[in-house]
Write a sequence for this structure.
């Protein structure tokens, strides 16, 4: 069942938890609301559940307007953050709770079926407090799923689990979602969790959706500094675009790339011109692609697309912009081997100030004139022993891996979203 | 030789294990902590109990003195003579407890879940009557319920007294010296003992459980029936016990607000001790009351099923 939020907002007194929001979640998708605590993601979820009444706007489920329906009359169930299992009922009765309220038949059989799905059959008569965190989590999931809701809401369901268990439950949840085919709306502050499980991720910040799309799309083509920093790590460089007929580095290669002059860089850096189209053109992560396209987001009143896709468009007309590149896209060449840098790559000379050995990968901090701390990740395949702190290097990367952000829009600077987990 | 001896103690003074005396002190700490309460119980509970027990099987008179003669007839005599008093005591206490629950539960519920910033004010208001003596408050009720007073006048005008009078709960024109007055007095005086445990058990319920119930198709009424109330049972049990037990033994309310026809067992015991001066009979009645309360309470606890309460 498609969920449609239309101009939905929520204010508590003077505080606006959620700014007017338009959002549609296609049927059967695994949708994640991602953001730091206090960004309005849980409030949005609670408005879907009916636990919070929107201050404005409408909530539609399929063709039904459920805005005013109390929670017990919505075909929606929630897995709560602390599970909220009924402590006086055993596992089987917790799971049967919703079925008993609706007086459906075959309660025993349905409960047993669900106990099998979450592999808790042996614990049916335990009380919640006798279960481990992971087991409680699965009871909470079973208790919601047994009702065959049209939408399942998950409020940080894995937050209380340790890392290993969380990883396992992520895969488990994804498996169950594929198996039952119900629309999942998942709230989390863990970007890895959102990216692992969701088909579509909406990144929220201060009560607004910053960007929405498939995980790979958000990662490869962030549209705001917040998204660039909140999802993974980004190196952001401030620069001024150089017109197509600019004095240096003009479009002689005819590659259609935009040239950006960054203070301290020896030559203008290049970035692909139409990143808005890149989303559909890019290959990859695949599975989520279609649902991301069906999904629309925007701010009510300002029109769906105005907040998006404009960053580079404006930049092309001459405004300053932020040029971004992910640390793992950057390669390092020792300064005396600078000739090995492929033709056409963006390059910044600098000096390694710090090198970290993480086993699976290596982290370098490179001080350049354009950027005091350029972060570089390298796979630990053939470690170049020359790359030690103090070494002069050239950091270089393909222009295709460069993204541009409007430096003035969104009220954000290059560090927005960086403190977040 | 002499050089070696002083060298030894500093060597052992590093991260040495506690000296035996310190370990013994630590092992005894729990007992020291229990000592004041233990002494208190021994002096003010166990000793009087033994003394009463021995008194209850004595015979004799005030003039000749009482001696232990293992005279158990006091018990059977007391039951025979004061059966109605016992019954009345338990009936009044039970009704008062039920009324306390009916009045106290909504108040405790609202205080725990809806009072917001008024919560502490409500709790203070619940406790406030304790700042006045029990006796004074009950005497005040005597004035409030007095014949020709505003309460009687209002109830009479509304024809409530006709109904309660027909049921034998009140007189046709008066409230004082009726069973209703005694029950009202008991309810009033023991209400805080019901509210406070109820409040503390309700207040501990995680509000997300209510949301979870509503999310799982429970109407507000079903949420209360299936989640809130079961989880507040420890408070209900504690509150009813704290109300029922002292109410069964109470005699002030029956004395001040009732007539001889509303006398409870507490009044009878008081009379035996202070007026008749038949100490063995009074002691036997006290023991009987205690035993009956124990029976009633254990049956109740069995029914309420406290073993699985959270």
């Amino acid at each position: 069942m498609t969920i449609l939020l239309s101009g939905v907002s929520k204010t508590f007194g003077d505080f606006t938890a959620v700014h007017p929001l338009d959002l549609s979640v296609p049927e059967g998708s695994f949708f994640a609301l991602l953001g730091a605590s206090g960004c309005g993601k849980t409030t949005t979820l609670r408005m879907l559940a009916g636990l919070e009444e929107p201050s404005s706007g409408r909530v539609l489920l399929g063709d039904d307007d459920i805005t005013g329906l109390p929670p017990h009359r919505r075909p929606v169930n929630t897995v709560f953050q602390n599970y909220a299992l009924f402590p006086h009922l055993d596992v089987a009765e917790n799971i049967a709770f919703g079925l008993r309220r609706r007086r459906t038949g075959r309660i025993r059989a349905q409960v047993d079926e669900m106990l099998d799905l979450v592999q808790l059959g042996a614990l049916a008569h335990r009380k919640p407090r006798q279960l481990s965190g992971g087991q409680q989590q699965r009871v909470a999931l079973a208790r919601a799923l047994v009702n065959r809701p049209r939408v399942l809401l998950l409020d940080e369901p894995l937050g209380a689990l340790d890392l290993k268990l969380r990883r396992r439950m992520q895969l488990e949840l994804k498996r169950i979602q594929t198996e039952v085919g119900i629309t999942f709306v998942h709230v989390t502050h863990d970007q890895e969790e959102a990216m692992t499980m969701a088909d579509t991720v909406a990144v929220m910040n201060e009560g607004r959706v910053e960007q929405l799309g498939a995980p790979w799309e958000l990662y490869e083509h962030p549209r705001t500094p917040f998204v660039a920093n909140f999802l993974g790590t980004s190196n952001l460089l401030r620069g001024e675009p150089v017109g197509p007929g600019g004095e240096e580095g003009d479009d002689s290669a005819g590659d259609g790339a935009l040239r950006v002059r960054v203070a301290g860089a020896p030559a203008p850096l290049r970035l692909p011109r139409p990143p808005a189209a890149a989303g559909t053109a890019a290959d990859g992560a695949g599975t989520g692609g279609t649902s991301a396209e069906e999904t629309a987001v925007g701010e009510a009143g300002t029109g769906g697309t105005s907040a998006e896709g404009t960053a580079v468009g404006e930049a092309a007309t001459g405004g300053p912009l932020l040029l971004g590149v992910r640390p793992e896209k950057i390669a390092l060449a020792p300064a005396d081997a600078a000739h090995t840098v492929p033709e056409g790559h963006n390059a910044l000379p600098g000096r390694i100030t710090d090198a970290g050995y993480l086993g699976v990968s290596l982290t370098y901090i490179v001080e350049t004139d354009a950027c005091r701390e350029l972060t570089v990740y390298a796979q630990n395949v053939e470690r170049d022993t020359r790359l030690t702190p103090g070494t002069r290097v050239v950091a270089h990367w393909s222009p295709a891996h460069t993204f541009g952000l409007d430096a003035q829009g969104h009220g954000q600077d290059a560090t927005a979203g960086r403190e977040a987990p | 030789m002499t050089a070696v001896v002083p060298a030894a103690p500093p060597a052992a003074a590093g991260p040495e294990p506690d000296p035996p005396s310190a370990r013994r002190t630590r092992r005894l700490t729990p007992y020291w902590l229990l000592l004041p309460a233990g002494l208190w119980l021994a002096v003010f509970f166990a000793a009087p109990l033994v003394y009463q027990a021995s008194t209850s099987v004595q015979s004799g008179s005030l003039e000749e003195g009482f001696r232990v003669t293992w005279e158990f007839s006091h018990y059977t005599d007391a039951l025979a003579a004061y059966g109605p008093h016992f019954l009345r005591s338990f009936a009044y206490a039970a009704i008062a407890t039920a009324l306390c629950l009916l009045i106290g539960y909504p108040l405790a519920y609202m205080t725990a879940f809806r009072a917001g910033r008024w919560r502490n004010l409500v709790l203070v208001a619940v406790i406030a009557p304790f700042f006045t003596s029990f006796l004074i408050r009950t005497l005040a009720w005597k004035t409030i319920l007095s014949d020709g007073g505003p309460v009687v006048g209002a109830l009479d005008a509304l024809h409530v007294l006709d109904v309660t009078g027909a049921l034998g709960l009140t007189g046709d024109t008066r409230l004082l010296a009726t069973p209703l007055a005694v029950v009202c007095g008991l309810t009033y005086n023991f209400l805080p003992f019901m509210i406070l445990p109820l409040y503390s058990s309700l207040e501990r319920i995680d509000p997300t459980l209510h949301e979870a119930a509503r999310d799982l198709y429970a109407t507000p009424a079903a949420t209360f029936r299936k989640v809130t109330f079961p989880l507040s049972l420890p408070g209900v049990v504690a509150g009813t016990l704290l109300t029922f037990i002292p109410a069964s033994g109470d005699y002030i309310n029956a004395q001040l607000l009732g007539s001889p026809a509303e006398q409870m067992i507490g009044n009878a015991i008081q009379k035996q001790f202070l007026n008749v001066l038949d100490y063995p009979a009074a002691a036997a009645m006290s023991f009987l009351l205690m035993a009956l309360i124990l029976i009633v309470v254990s049956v109740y606890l069995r029914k309420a099923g406290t073993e699985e309460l959270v």
Chain B is about 75% helix and 5% strand. The longest helix of chain B spans residues 73-113.
